[in-house]
Amino acid sequence: MEYGFNAVFPKMLIRIKFKRHRYWAKVFDEYVKNNVIDDISPDDWSAPVHTSFKKDINSDIDKALLESQIERAVRDALGGYELDVMNSWWNVYTKGMYQERHHHCGGSILSGIYAIKNANKPPVRFHNDDTPILHAMGQYDRYNGSPWDDLCGSKIDPYYEDGDILLFHSHFMHEVPYYREDDYRITVSFNLGKK
Question: What single-letter DSSP state applies at residue 62?
Answer without folding.
Answer: -
